[in-house]
């Protein structure tokens, strides 16, 4: 099984040392679950297989919000080259990406601000469990999020500057606090207008949907 073979390549002793070095902080975000390599390797093998990365020719992949780096580590096992993109606020993520030898760019994604120039384009750009669109909290505790105009700016920036001609962009979202889909009617209309294929909690976009047969809309 791919998951077991990949897990066997990770130094679990060093992962345990990272857990001791960066213990869970009370009231902090529960990031230390990322030390559970077996769980996250399983999750990311499934993600890679959903994108056919286990049988695709070598690709250049950019992972936005790469976290601990497990997705790109799995992608490398399948023969792909990857670059992570994230902030550097979590020491555990820093330690884990270093352990897994996952390259990453340190930067923050802001609404209507172009991403920093990376001097290359990618076959696939991913963002799993997207959080960068959350920009604050309202008085009722609900997240203040990007508007459709913010999303259009982001998608256009990524498409024109970072995606190869036959590139793909996959965005995976958390459900809302009440269990409903991230895709409100307004957001669904926004993503569909950009040529997205929406399924489950994900939106899949092509550089040019008209040139990519997998992106024909069935509405």
Protein architecture, described:
The chain is an alpha/beta fold. The protein is 32% helix and 22% strand. It is built from 7 helices and 9 strands. It has helices at 2-7, 12-21, 37-50, 70-77, 91-99, 148-162, 185-193; strands spanning 60-64, 81-86, 104-106, 122-130, 134-137, 143-145, 163-173, 197-199, 202-206. The strands form 2 sheets. Strands 3-2-1-4-7-9-8 form a 7-stranded mixed β-sheet, with helices on both faces. Strands 5-6 form a two-stranded antiparallel ribbon. A hairpin with a 5-residue loop joins strand 5 (134-137) and strand 6. Helix 3 (37-50) crosses helix 4. The protein starts with a helix and ends in a 13-residue tail after the last strand.
Keywords:
7 helices, disordered C terminus, two-stranded antiparallel sheet, 22% strand, 7-stranded mixed beta sheet, 219 residues, alpha/beta, 9 strands
Strand order in space, largest sheet: 3-2-1-4-7-9-8
The shape, in one word, is globular
Secondary structure class reads alpha/beta
Ranges where pLDDT stays below 50 over 5 or more residues in a row are: 215-219
User: Overall mean pLDDT score?
Assistant: 89
The count of helical stretches stands at 7
Task: Please give the number of β-strands.
Answer: 9
* Proportion of residues in β-strands: 15-25%
Could you tell me how far the N terminus lies from the C terminus, measured between alpha carbons in angstroms?
37 Å
Secondary-structure element order, N to C: HHHEHEHEEEEHEHEE
Radius of gyration: 18 Å
User: Can you summarize the main beta sheet?
Assistant: 7 strands, mixed
| Amount of helix | 25-40%
């Amino acid at each position: 099984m791919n998951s077991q073979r990949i897990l066997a390549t990770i130094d679990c002793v060093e992962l345990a040392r990272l857990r001791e070095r960066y213990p869970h902080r009370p009231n902090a975000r529960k990031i230390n679950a990322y030390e559970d390599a077996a769980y996250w390797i399983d999750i990311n093998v499934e993600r890679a297989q959903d994108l056919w990365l286990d049988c695709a020719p070598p690709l250049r992949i950019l992972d936005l919000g790469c976290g601990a780096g497990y997705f790109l580590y799995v992608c490398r096992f399948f023969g792909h080259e990857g670059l992570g993109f994230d902030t550097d606020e979590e020491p555990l993520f820093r330690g884990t990406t270093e352990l897994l030898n996952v390259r990453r760019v340190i930067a923050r994604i802001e609404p209507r601000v172009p991403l920093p120039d990376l001097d290359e384009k990618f076959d696939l750009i991913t963002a799993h469990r997207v959080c960068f669109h959350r920009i604050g909290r309202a008085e009722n505790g609900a997240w203040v999020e990007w508007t459709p105009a913010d999303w259009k700016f982001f998608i256009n920036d990524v498409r024109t500057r970072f995606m190869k001609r036959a590139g793909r962009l996959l965005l995976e979202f958390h459900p809302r606090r009440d269990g409903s889909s991230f895709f409100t009617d307004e957001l669904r209309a926004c993503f569909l207008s950009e040529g997205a294929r929406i399924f489950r909690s994900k939106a899949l976009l092509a550089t040019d949907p008209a040139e990519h047969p997998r992106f024909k809309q069935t509405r």
